[in-house]
Amino acid sequence: MRISLVCTAKNxxxxxxxxxxxxxxxxLRPDEIVINDNNSTDATAAIxxxxxxxxxxxxxxxxxHNIPSGRNNAIYHATGGMLLRAPMRGSSSIAIGWHASPSxxxxxxxxxxxxxxxxxxxx
Length: 123
Prior knowledge:
By secondary structure, the chain is of the alpha/beta class. It is built from four helices and five strands. A five-stranded mixed sheet has the order 3-2-1-4-5. The chain is globular, with a radius of gyration of 13 Å.
């Protein structure tokens, strides 16, 4: 099953590269990392795009007007059957193996992302 790691960011140019590096360094590496940039006015989007241009499985998407809508936009663009949500606010990296430990920062969805997205919007 493909794993998608989703994250939202806004004006995180000082932290986003370290966060991406920690995502890429996981023992269970995601098949894709989808980062939603929520109208940053700094270099956040350019840094994310740079990782994509280097050939890493990192995709930049834009949209949303707050953290929840940005997260939902990232989920909408994810292609994996399992979704993991990474923290951004106040976090510049994630610990190795974070996906295996129970945490409110991790959301594992064992269904298709379309089903999950439909359920989120049905509530």
